[in-house]
Amino acid sequence: MVKVKELPREEYIERGHAACGGCGATIAIRHALKALGGNTILTVPACCMSVIQGLYPKNGLSIPVLNTAFMTSGAAASGIAAGLKHLGKDKEINLMAWAGDGGTYDIGIQALSGAAERQTNFIYTCYNNAAYGNTGMQRSGATPYGSYSTTTPTGKRQHRKPMARIMAEHGIPYTGVISAAYPRLIYDTYKKAKDIVGTRFIEIHIPCPTGWRYPTWDTVNMGKLAVESGAWIMWEREGDEYRFLGRSKLIAEGKVQRKPLIDWIKPQGRFRFLLKDPGMMAEYERGIEREWEIMKRLVGC
Amino acid sequence: MVKVKELPREEYIERGHAACGGCGATIAIRHALKALGGNTILTVPACCMSVIQGLYPKNGLSIPVLNTAFMTSGAAASGIAAGLKHLGKDKEINLMAWAGDGGTYDIGIQALSGAAERQTNFIYTCYNNAAYGNTGMQRSGATPYGSYSTTTPTGKRQHRKPMARIMAEHGIPYTGVISAAYPRLIYDTYKKAKDIVGTRFIEIHIPCPTGWRYPTWDTVNMGKLAVESGAWIMWEREGDEYRFLGRSKLIAEGKVQRKPLIDWIKPQGRFRFLLKDPGMMAEYERGIEREWEIMKRLVGC
Amino acid sequence: MAKLKRKPPSHRITCITYPEKGAMGNTGDWRIFRPVVDREKCTRCQMCWMYCPDAVITMDEEGIPTFDLVYCKGCMICEEVCPANAITRVRETEAKE
Amino acid sequence: MAKLKRKPPSHRITCITYPEKGAMGNTGDWRIFRPVVDREKCTRCQMCWMYCPDAVITMDEEGIPTFDLVYCKGCMICEEVCPANAITRVRETEAKE
Amino acid sequence: MPKVVSVSGNHAAAWAARTAEPAVIAAYPITPQTTIVEKIADFVEGGELSSQYVRVESEHSAMAACIGASALGLRTFTATSSHGLALMHEMLHWAGRARLPIVMPVVNRAMGPPWNIWTDHTDSMSQRDTGWIQFYASNNQEVYDTVLMLFRLSEDPKVLLPSMVCLDAFILSHTFTPTTVYEHKEIRDFLPDYKAGHWKLDPKDPMATGNIAGPEYYYELSYAIHEGFEAARKLIPRVVREFEKHFGRSHGGFIDTSRCEDAEVILWAMGTMGEEATLAVENLRQQGIAAGSARLRVFRPFPVEQIQKLASKAKAFVVVDRSLSYGHTGGQATEIRSALYRGNNRIPVQGVVAGLGGRDVTQTDLEKLIQVGFDVADKGEAGPEIFYGLKR
Amino acid sequence: MPKVVSVSGNHAAAWAARTAEPAVIAAYPITPQTTIVEKIADFVEGGELSSQYVRVESEHSAMAACIGASALGLRTFTATSSHGLALMHEMLHWAGRARLPIVMPVVNRAMGPPWNIWTDHTDSMSQRDTGWIQFYASNNQEVYDTVLMLFRLSEDPKVLLPSMVCLDAFILSHTFTPTTVYEHKEIRDFLPDYKAGHWKLDPKDPMATGNIAGPEYYYELSYAIHEGFEAARKLIPRVVREFEKHFGRSHGGFIDTSRCEDAEVILWAMGTMGEEATLAVENLRQQGIAAGSARLRVFRPFPVEQIQKLASKAKAFVVVDRSLSYGHTGGQATEIRSALYRGNNRIPVQGVVAGLGGRDVTQTDLEKLIQVGFDVADKGEAGPEIFYGLKR
Amino acid sequence: MKLFEIRFHGRGGQGGVTGAKILARAAELEDKFFQAFAHYGAERRGAPVMAFTRIDNKPIRIHSYIYQPEAIVIFDETLLEIPSIQDGLREDTFVVVNTPRAPKDIKLKVKAKVSTVDATKIALDAGIVVAGIPVVNTIMLGAVARATNIVKIENVKQAIQKGLAGLPDKVIKTNVEAAQRAYDALVKGY
Amino acid sequence: MKLFEIRFHGRGGQGGVTGAKILARAAELEDKFFQAFAHYGAERRGAPVMAFTRIDNKPIRIHSYIYQPEAIVIFDETLLEIPSIQDGLREDTFVVVNTPRAPKDIKLKVKAKVSTVDATKIALDAGIVVAGIPVVNTIMLGAVARATNIVKIENVKQAIQKGLAGLPDKVIKTNVEAAQRAYDALVKGY
Ligand SMILES: Cc1ncc(C[n+]2csc(CCOP(=O)(O)OP(=O)(O)O)c2C)c(N)n1
Ligand SMILES: Cc1ncc(C[n+]2csc(CCOP(=O)(O)OP(=O)(O)O)c2C)c(N)n1
Ligand code: SF4
Ligand code: SF4
Ligand code: SF4
Ligand code: SF4
After folding, report:
1. CB F359 within 8 A of CB F388
2. For the domain bounded by E255-387, which CATH number is listed?
3. Average pLDDT over every residue of B47-55
């Protein structure tokens, strides 16, 4: 794993951008772009990242960005990818779509799935803050069971769609599931993905102080606790082979114990209903255990 | 398995409908509807089935049908499901969306995936004739590698999207993959699915004389050969458990040998390019082997 | 054009249709070949009935298939699936004579 | 409003924007707390630099973090991740005095 | 008992849904419509509203789900804005052509790119050809009242058309004002339960809808939609009257006019600009200037005769569009001119485009524009379209 | 060397793409557009066309992919029809507002429900507010020629707008006629390579497009689109002239007129009806009747002045729309009336809706409608809109 | 010459539009203008379908349907039973039927200019058979040339060569010869 | 009464709109009409934001922005540095500032009717603190009532009770008392 001091000093996100204070998404994109470098084109559908860029006539990202409609990241990227191929620059320039969980799990899955099926040459990042952040925290397909959102005010009653596994099962060459709490892993993951040809899907778990309702300074803590408690599993699939990553690997191998789920849940305002309802809590835990089982079966351990 | 003579005599498809002679889709829907019975509401996006119904002011199906826009089967069904729930009839009336492979793999995956994530109570059938039949056989995400289509005139260069597995990985309670060549299995599958609550996804392989370019009378042969040669795998997933079905089970268990793939490919005009190109042929076979491996791993055998 | 059992006012409001035979007209017109059954050979297995995509086969009192030729499109799947080879194809032009 | 390095005619054709600091203004204005480093305690590990979501930290010649207070939003992640507890928060109102 | 609540325009819309009690609500969030669907979620999960609430995965699906539910013969509701509305476009045509009385508030917001969340009427004006009844509201009470009127209108067996009420982003959607609201049982005299007489999905009486109709039938089915609009045209005044009888309030019929009887110049505008125009008119009247204002409440069916009538005494119209059909003019200006062309009074019509993307338009601005109308009346001829407030 | 091929309107469109050599084509099939994309697939896989061909999974994605490719500064092409066009609606706004010169044939087909694959202009007329240049063609050669002209027009640095050419389903799309086509190198004098001067995605000079612009900027960015249309308005006659110079053919400018100089009644129609109208006019002329026909080729930018001019000598217009903006009139009739309202010659304009959903409209029908125009001229006043050919 | 309109009746899969297009090409070789199109809607294999050719010596500006064709060509005798086949029939309409029967045996509601040819036999003899079904579209064009004189048989043959370009030479040759045979074998009833 | 317009300056998360709405409710209790809204765009926590209340004794038909408010209320002294805070300031504008300083120490470009109150201290004393940050919105309303006389303090207190309904009784009580304290503690500089 890359050392902190080896991380490139170049920044591709300008100071004074419009993210909320303590935003996990900006930690994530900072290090993803460090790995990809400046020779990268980005396309961004409606999501927090379209706000984070700031206001016309300035932009907080220092690479070319095509902002595009909410449903279209996979499709807009397909057009850019085709154009780069026409120009003979598809090997030289990295192409990345950067979309939220709503723009991926919900309204963007079709364009993404189509792009993957066509073996489009690009990296698709889903940065998952588990709700529609831009519009004020409505339920998304990624919102965890039991979580408050403004459209599930008494807690969501469905489990998260297993999006990354769905993408992996498309048979794409690379799928990675990581977290904003581990920037070095982000860097390494993008470094690896950069050199693979075809559709690469990377999902980053994004602690979001605004939506999850915890103090801004706890972003890294919340990200780590999600992994440490097993609520978020980090893994990758290269070719047809699944593998656990980082802390999740240690957990899967029994080298470390999972922390109690409650350690992660309690500090977050969005889980206040879940906390009050043992039945819901049990169902949430059941969902997590099921995820671990499925993932362990896929990894083959 | 149901005996031929036990199959209900009631028909829910009227004579004089508009399917091509020898259409596998009509065999499939005949038996699916026999299993569900007349207390069923159907929604159909743009596809051959919207043509098969025939012309205003008549309709070739004798259950209520909401024809709907191409992209919307999962969504239109979600609305009907909600309405049935409001009426307290969600247990009494079966709700089915019946869509083609284009309307499922490609333009319909979003609405379907959303409906599944919301645990919508309905059966979604994808009848897969492996191309856009209604519009004259363009490429779909289900078109097999190497197959001619009017938009891949020298043969498609991507493998089929593993749609049913993608749906299964959504964690829905039932997924079934069958074929029009086995009406009794169709009947049994729908009988079983009927009694499950939640989103049930059933994919039926549909030999199509018009698109696959074989004589009308070979529909059943083509359907069976696809399974016998291993090009089409029949399986189901109930809960989290995968299982092979019918002939595919025998193949997986080594009880029967797969027939040579060429037996299935050769009679079909759509594979003429594949037949000429050993490299493509090998790639197609590689894809099939990979499917078998993945499925075997999932079934756990 | 089409004759309907009933035609309520809904028709004049939007595109409502009613279940009825012949939604595509008399599809028997499409036929180039006609299925003909050999009553002797037939084993009454009903495979032809099960596989007919147009649902135009009925088993008569004796359990032998009859074909509704107003709608049978002549795909000849029945011939192909008949395990007893009891169904044969006849060119429609010849059959008509 | 915003001052741009350059403003080519594209601007007048469609919504083109250029990379520049302060796309959301001087976001240092948002700060309620201000990070202050204790140069003695700092071990130069760069964790604060790595985690700063606003990329406003630079390590000075001595490897100690400096904060671009024009843009630092005061989220205090740096304080939280600093393994040496070398960063502390000061209320902005107090800091200004 | 009616009660007065302090609500935003969006909450007024949500309250109206609560009052009308749709069987199914399917919606997708988009700024600045979000607080409608959030409030509805509160109502539903708080047990105050019995609707099935489907949290779909896109607006295209929202409208498709409404279509599915409405096809069961059930009352159906959704809400959207801007890109969400645009994404529905295909399904708007579908709902209109299938004659499904879905009611939908549309929060008027600018289309991107660039992203812009502020008010602009281009989103809804671009849907004028989709077969939807269109109302534009000017305050929160009108939003609330119009939703109830629209259910009544849309569900009428002679009409059977979907309808939208448009409200200006933020200016109405997020501005809190006192608004009178009712519970469901209090409005049932005015708005009875919906009974789908024309068709519904019902296994007991199987019908299908939408399979292919050839050139020999399609035209008549389209004409039936036209007839639905003509029926709506007749019914609107009655619904407005009855609403007033039941609730003691009116916001005008097709057009909400102010001092038009003896106005020499009439300023036309939709939505909040239309209401603010009445202040401009009052101010000018105090200076002895014969100004009037006409707020177009109903854009579809388009009130041709009513517009013609207003031209009979006036000397000029000034038409302010908060949208632009690029390559021609604002939609309101085009259609008003066209309406007048068919009448006898052909006074000059000055077209104005103003307020795009949330650019503020004040009472003073509107007064200036009325003054322009007097110049136009003097000249007897309108000038080229004015792009008011444009910075060059 | 130009060659004459026997092609359908769709193949003419595909040939035009081949001639223009876009860098990227992204499309999705829909009857009756399919043979365009199928022919393109043949060209691409047959090595006759170097374009990257993206077989997207929906029309919304088709337009998004075109936007992505065009944003790289590349020539881009797609084609669609009816529901496909409707599904693109959001992205049509996007392409227009982003100023991307995408060119797209649209095969005019009716909207469902019921499903109907025959011709009807409602699909494209419903896009009149999206910021696209719109041409309507009347024969296959015109389809081919217009695509080339549109690339030239759209890519002009002053214009930079997407454009569509509309052609009638089956009547043109699937009808084979002799058509002259060229190879790419033969047309480069007329249509040079596209050079995106305004912006492109390029890591060497990073710019972004589309992030939020508030009320202080949005209006001006919208006005810039208006300016693009005004530039197109100026440029169209020049492009038509230059096309004629290079290739010796013209199909008219904004309006293709026949015998209008001294016509008392002018019949307006778009697409194939507009061409067939010339036969009606000839026949009536032989009977000494002073008829004329005007085929509106360009709907956006809307040719206000040219229409006004044609009213100067005529006594009445008859405007035949193959579409209907429900709740008002056909879009052509509305906009022509509006245009005349701004001019000096205010002759009666009789609106007609005809041919919806593929209902056939013959030369005889058009002759009858011209006769109606004479009645109208006599009365000095048009009657209510005529729904021609309606069966009751 | 006046505008000449031809209507072809066939079955889905019999190549009606191809026939209409090849006839158009033949006219083109005589420096005429043309349109060739089909009635779209339900092109199912075996289902009755129609195709059309318009020929003129000036560009064709008419776009509406063909209601009163100058010639009606019937690819398949069994289609004679469908009433719409006689739509727009006048006394001077050419009717060319594929049948072994004589023109006088063809019963129509109007006494038109009927001619007949056994194209199916010609096809079977020449082996022009696809999926077991004789294909008569090109063959009937030979008959049309003779019956109507609207194009020369040489040009029909040349048009067949162009229209079938891409198929094996032998197939093309067979088709050309079969068209000539139909030309020779046509029996005119007028 | 003439239309009275108030502009609140706060920071994202400080409850500016809630404040504007509660003030509106207070006016409603005096049978007045109102509008309460915010300037939408970038409501990030900590970022400077604006909210508005309009009060009149007839229905309000004005919908455009507030350019020249009758009163400007500043929730956070640090905001004084932002120039836009003085937009539309006139000599007769009330300016109510949360600061421990005296009115005369508040430097503005126009000599307006400035009054001050240490709302932060009141909040801290009363324990009205969320996520470590004192919340002053309700407290400032007490000051506004005194500074402008636009609403009675009783009605402000009643409006707070309604506006915070749903929160624990204790919290509401604390807020009401704090508003009264601000009312009492306000220092007028005019
Ligand atoms: C068609 C359409 N529908 C809705 C919206 C409104 N919208 C913009 S961003 C967004 C939510 C984005 O959520 P997510 O993708 O999770 O990203 P996040 O904002 O959380 O970063 C929504 C609903 C839109 N722009 N377009
Ligand atoms: C938005 C939209 N795009 C395209 C079409 C045209 N269309 C109708 S059916 C169809 C293909 C359907 O293919 P599939 O789903 O595989 O079903 P099949 O026809 O093969 O049964 C297409 C492309 C449409 N109706 N709507
Ligand atoms: S194209 Fe194929 S699937 Fe469609 S109706 Fe014909 S045979 Fe059936
Ligand atoms: S398939 Fe053959 S044997 Fe069986 S019932 Fe039919 S005709 Fe008789
Ligand atoms: S407080 Fe937050 S923004 Fe400021 S330097 Fe620390 S981490 Fe960066
Ligand atoms: S995290 Fe702490 S110890 Fe490490 S560099 Fe920053 S201030 Fe120094």
Report:
1. no
2. 3.40.50.920
3. 97
CA of G28 to the centre of ligand 6 (A): 84
CB contact under 8 A, F61 and A75: yes
Kindly provide the b/e burial profile for residues C47-67, where b requires at least 16 CB atoms within 10 angstroms of the residue's own CB.
bbbbbbbbbbbebeeeebbeb
Neighbours of chain A (3+ CB pairs under 8 A): B, D, E, F, H
CB H160 within 8 A of CB H175: yes
Give the C-alpha separation, B76 to B64, whole Å: 14
| Least Cα separation, residue B258 to chain C (angstroms) | 21
Instruction: With residue E163 as reference, give the H or E element that holds it.
Output: strand E163-168
Whether residue D26 contacts residue A16, with contact meaning beta carbons closer than 8 Å, is answered with: yes
The CATH classification of domain G4-188, taken from the options 3.40.920.10, 3.30.70.120, 3.40.50.720, 3.40.50.1110: 3.40.920.10
For H123-139, write each residue's pLDDT tens digit: 999 999 887 778 999 99
CATH class for the region spanning B6-299:
alpha beta
Mutate which: E156, E158, E221, E229, vs C, most C CBs within 10 A:
E221
In 3D, which of H90, H47, H36, H48 has the Cα closest to residue H67? H90
User: Given a cut of 90, is residue E151 above it in pLDDT?
Assistant: yes
**Cα–Cα distance list, F342 to A67, B225, C91, E129, E350 (Å):** 40, 71, 70, 23, 9
Contact between C29 and G47 using a beta-carbon 8 Å cutoff: yes
Q: How far is the CA of D3 from the centre of ligand 5 (A)?
A: 25
ipTM above 0.90, yes or no: yes
pLDDT(F176) > 70: yes
H46 at interface of A, judged by CB pairs closer than 8 A: yes
Q: How many CA atoms lie within 13 A of A11 on its CB side?
A: 22
Return the domain boundaries, chain H.
4-188
Query: Which band of pLDDT confidence, cut at 50, 70 and 90, is reported for residue D1?
Result: very low
Q: For residue C11, what pLDDT is reported?
A: 60
> Of the candidates G11, G3, G189, G5, which has an alpha carbon nearest to the alpha carbon of residue G88?
G5
d(CA A66, CA A77): 9
- The residues with which F353 forms a beta bridge, in sequence order, are F321, F387
C7 has pLDDT over 70: no
Specify the pairing of strand H71-74 against strand F291-296: unpaired
Q: Is the CB–ligand 2 distance for residue B32 below 6 Å? A: no
Q: Which pLDDT band holds residue C4 (cuts at 50, 70, 90)?
A: very low
Evaluate whether H35 touches E177 at the Cβ level (below 8 Å). Answer: yes
Spell out which residues of chain C touch residue B48, defining contact as CB-CB under 8 Å. none
In percent, how much of chain A has pLDDT > 70? 100
pLDDT digits (tens, 9 = 90+) for E201-252: 999 999 999 999 999 999 999 999 999 999 999 999 999 999 999 999 999 9
- Give nearest CA residue, ligand 6 atom 2: D82
**Whole-angstrom distance, CA of residue E171 vs CA of residue E142:** 14
Cβ G167 vs Cβ G151: under 8 Å:
no
Could you tell me which chains touch chain D, where touching means 3 or more CB pairs under 8 A? A, E, F, H
Topology given in CATH for the domain delimited by F3-247 = Rossmann fold (3.40.50)
For residues E255 and E306, is the Cβ–Cβ distance under 8 A?
Answer: yes
Contact flag F57-B154 (C-beta cutoff 8 Å) = no
CB contact under 8 A, E212 and F301: no
Does the beta carbon of D76 lie inside 6 Å of ligand 6? no
- Give the tens place of pLDDT for each residue, E351-384: 999 999 999 999 999 999 999 999 999 999 999 9
A159 Cβ under 8 Å from any chain B Cβ? yes
pLDDT value for G12: 86
> Residue G42: what pLDDT?
66
**CB-ligand 4 contact for C57 (6 Å cutoff):** no
How far apart (Å, rounded) are the C-alpha atoms in residues E117 and E255?
28
